[in-house]
Amino acid sequence: MQLQVNKKSILSLFIIVNIFLACTNKNKQELIAQCDVSNLSYVNDIVPILNTHCNSQSGCHGGVDIGSISLETYTDAKDNIDDILVRIKTGNMPKNNSKLEDCLISKIQEWKNLGTPNN
C-alpha cells in the first residue's frame, strides 16, 4: 500500500495542527489570566484556600487535636508558611487528596514573597 501525499492533504494537516496549537495556547493563556496573583489578600485569597484544603472543612488542620498543627489563624499560617509550601509543592499535602492546583500554590507562594501580609 502506497501512501499518496498531495498538497491538499499537507495543507489540511497543517491547518489542523495550527488550530490545535492555537486552542492549546489560548487555553493556557486563559488559565494564566485566571490565576491572578496581584493584589493578594490573606482574607480574600489565602484563607479560602486554607479553609477548603487544609482546615476543619477538609478534616485536618482545623484544630490542635485534629492535625499536628492548626492553620485556622493568620499567625498559624504565617508561622508555618515554609512547611506549608514544601508540603503542597511536593504533593504531600493535602493528605489523601490530589495535589493543589498550580494557581493555588502560586497564590500561597506569592503571599509568602510579599512577606505574608495580614490584609
Order of helices and strands: HHHHH
- Number of DSSP-assigned strands: 0
Count, helices: 5
Which word captures the global form? elongated
Largest sheet: none
Structural class: mainly alpha
Rounded average pLDDT: 80
In total, the number of domains comes to 2
Beta-strand proportion: under 5%
- Nearest-angstrom radius of gyration? 22 Å
Unreliable spans are none
Helix content: 55-70%
Head-to-tail CA distance between termini: 69 Å
Could you explain the architecture of this structure?
- With 119 residues, the protein is mostly helical.
- The protein has two domains: 7-34; 44-113, no CATH class.
- It has five helices and no strands.
- It has helices spanning 7-34, 42-53, 74-79, 81-90, 102-113.
- α2 crosses α5.
- It is elongated.
Describe the protein's topology.
Blueprint: H1 7-34, H2 42-53, H3 74-79, H4 81-90, H5 102-113
Helix pairs in contact: 2-5, 4-5
What is the structure about, briefly put?
By secondary structure, the chain is mainly alpha-helical. The protein contains five helices and no strands.
Quickly list its features.
119 residues, mainly alpha, 2 domains, elongated
